[in-house]
């Protein structure tokens, strides 16, 4: 039998069969009625999922392309900006700001810490833009964006949020929280393969565009085209078709139900991991519902654990990034993901640790995960 | 019966069923062995198709993203550059150069003209980069890139070529002709849906990088990652899988055979169009093997013709772009395309013109096209 494959990473994430099927439809032209129907529905669904009345701009790009669009459109050389980071993706905001010549103030927490609103009070004064990361995929921390954004807005800054791994998984209220720009990608909670970046942009952000060179990621160009259900450059037709199906599935489940599911999946994963006697690196709290980061047992390089599971058992977890390489491993639980994915991931970790001869509590993780999960779904 | 659809535009182009099928495979992680196998093969096949020993960099983006990468990596503000244009895509080079603050010399031919090497002699002197368009998709002109590049190289400039609709359809010798940068997209002769841009970069180009801000399109970042079979940002996994299958099909056919097929398709299309009594806008020459542009009959707005065929018959041709809107229509014949696509396209044009009550030669176009096609394939 060919080895079965299991994808338990925080992106790309598995896509539902309906989505994959939509992607394999014959190619259609992006200016014909067949595509426009899909495109219009998809753009409307995005607004609903972003919870915004703003335009949601779509780019054929990875999530990072969407992040760069925020810097390229808002930051002129020498502009004061504030980046708040506590992991690899927050640091990407800093790298982007440096690449565009910002006068950058970088509030860099230790990886794994949770940014606090008090820390940016005062520090956001005079910044044109404050860059935040909602779900820090490298550590599992989900920040309190509402509180952070409130302080930044008070200081008169534009608020730009990396919502790549959070949108659709945990509550994110673009308009209610006054988020000027929210960036996401197709390949996380939106259950579509990678290749699309989506960016919501507020009127205030459009009113304060910068002067950095840009063309492909130019927001005004894209906004103008989308207003006529067009795109300035050939869109990634099959990915848009797939995304539209995925967004339909997400809205059918309901956003609140999806948030609840992700919270319960996170809880189940954490309880299972702790039951094995392993230590959590990501916070043991409800908000951490996107990815669970686990400290690798002493004397076991986590990259070896991840490689072993992938090469011997067909199970893909995520290793540590940056200076956490070798020290932690990560189980993603976003998107097309249910409790049996959690129990499979836990079983895989348990099996691998036994094979590495690591002393753990055996035979309890899955049971504890089920208990934690069912707590809120009694029939 | 649901209406059958026919896609006869110069991009996106139809994708073979094998390609679509590869795209609908379950999502795999881009850092696992399953993807690396595909990625490595795909990157090697690209080098073979670009006919280069240089790296071919891959971006999740439309073709224009690849074009922008050339300007962002090579052009610093104030750099002298020369853009040679004779249609919409050549003018895109000019717009990109302006966006990046180049000291631009724009040699702008009338749309539909063919650039001549003599015209850039002298004019390329002192330019850091000369930007050329191989196949001008808006008009159907395929330029003599070898001759143009030779003059630009003599003047000491880097040569950057838009090969988006030409690579894989007409001869393009990246190394032999000394082309420093060639840009293409997945959605033309490479028979894959839109969403990937590929860029070959010479050592000389790497040695003369500019200072403009860039991150997502940074060549060195991508080159470094690809050297380890990695990507700096999550690649569009299913599109890469589809592209790899498509490139395999193209290499199986053989590049020379593909060039010959495209030349014969172009010839058949032109002969069929002329037999109807219609006037060609694109040159009536062998090199024009990518897209045939046709002057719309007097008193018939070509956009109406295109809309009629699309809405009433399920046949998608391309309208005129820019100031050719309403005046011409275009039949693409690149990629997954054979003689029966040409005969269907011609039959569709004939039917529509009859329905618009335009006086044409009836019943001869398909016969003439078959004659022109078979000329070189006698058994």
Can you characterise this structure?
2 copies of one chain form a homodimer. By secondary structure, chain A is α/β, with parallel strands linked by helices. The first copy, chain A, has 2 domains: 17-253, Aspartate Aminotransferase, domain 2 (3-Layer(aba) Sandwich); 254-374, Aspartate Aminotransferase, domain 1 (Alpha-Beta Complex). Chain A is built from 13 helices and 15 strands. Chain A has helices spanning 17-23, 33-50, 63-74, 88-99, 117-120, 145-154, 203-207, 219-227, 237-253, 255-275, 302-313, 339-355, 365-374, and strands at 6-7, 55-60, 80-85, 103-108, 129-133, 135-136, 141-142, 158-162, 181-185, 196-201, 279-280, 291-295, 315-316, 318-319, 328-332. In chain A, the strands form 4 sheets. A 7-stranded mixed sheet of chain A has the order 2-10-9-8-5-3-4, sandwiched between helices. In chain A, strands 11-12-15-14 form a 4-stranded antiparallel sheet, covered by helices on one side. In chain A, a hairpin with a 4-residue loop joins strand 6 and strand 7 (141-142). In chain A, helix 1 (17-23) packs antiparallel against helix 9 (237-253) and helix 9 packs across helix 10 (255-275). The longest helix of chain A has 21 residues, at 255-275. Chain A is globular. Chains A and B meet through helix 1, helix 3, helix 4 and helix 9 of A and helix 1, helix 3, helix 4 and helix 9 of B.
């Amino acid at each position: 039998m060919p080895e079965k494959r299991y994808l338990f990473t925080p992106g790309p994430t598995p896509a539902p069969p309906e989505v994959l099927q939509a992607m394999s439809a014959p190619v259609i032209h992006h200016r014909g009625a067949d595509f426009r129907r899909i495109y219009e529905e998809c753009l409307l669904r995005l607004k609903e999922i972003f919870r915004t009345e703003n335009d949601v701009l779509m780019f054929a790009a990875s999530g990072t392309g969407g992040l760069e669009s925020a810097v390229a459109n808002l930051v002129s050389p020498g502009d004061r900006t504030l980046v708040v980071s506590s992991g690899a993706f927050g640091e990407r905001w800093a790298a982007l700001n440096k690449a565009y010549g910002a006068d950058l103030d970088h509030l860099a927490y230790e990886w794994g810490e949770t940014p606090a609103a008090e820390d940016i009070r005062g520090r956001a004064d005079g910044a044109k833009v404050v860059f935040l990361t909602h779900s820090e995929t490298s550590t599992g921390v989900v920040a309190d964006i509402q509180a952070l954004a409130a302080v930044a807005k008070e200081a008169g800054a534009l608020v730009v949020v990396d919502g790549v791994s959070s949108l659709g998984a945990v509550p994110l209220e673009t308009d209610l929280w006054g988020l000027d720009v929210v960036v996401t990608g197709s390949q996380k909670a939106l259950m579509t393969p990678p290749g699309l970046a989506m960016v919501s942009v507020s009127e205030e952000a459009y009113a304060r565009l910068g002067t950095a060179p840009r063309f492909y990621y130019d927001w005004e160009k894209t906004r103008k085209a989308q207003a006529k259900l067009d795109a300035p450059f050939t869109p990634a037709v099959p990915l848009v078709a797939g995304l539209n199906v995925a967004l339909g599935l997400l809205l059918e489940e309901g956003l609140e139900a999806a948030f609840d599911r992700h919270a319960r999946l996170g809880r189940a994963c954490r309880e299972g991991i702790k039951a094995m006697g392993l230590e959590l690196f990501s916070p043991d709290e409800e908000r951490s519902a996107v990815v669970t980061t686990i400290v690798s047992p002493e004397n076991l390089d986590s990259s070896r654990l991840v490689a072993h599971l992938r090469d011997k058992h067909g199970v893909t977890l995520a290793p540590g990034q940056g200076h956490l390489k070798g020290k932690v491993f990560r189980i993603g639980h976003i998107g097309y993901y249910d409790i049996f994915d959690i129990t499979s991931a836990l079983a895989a970790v348990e099996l691998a640790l036994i094979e590495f001869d690591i002393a753990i509590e055996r035979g309890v993780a899955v049971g504890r995960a089920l208990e934690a999960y069912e707590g809120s779904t009694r029939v």
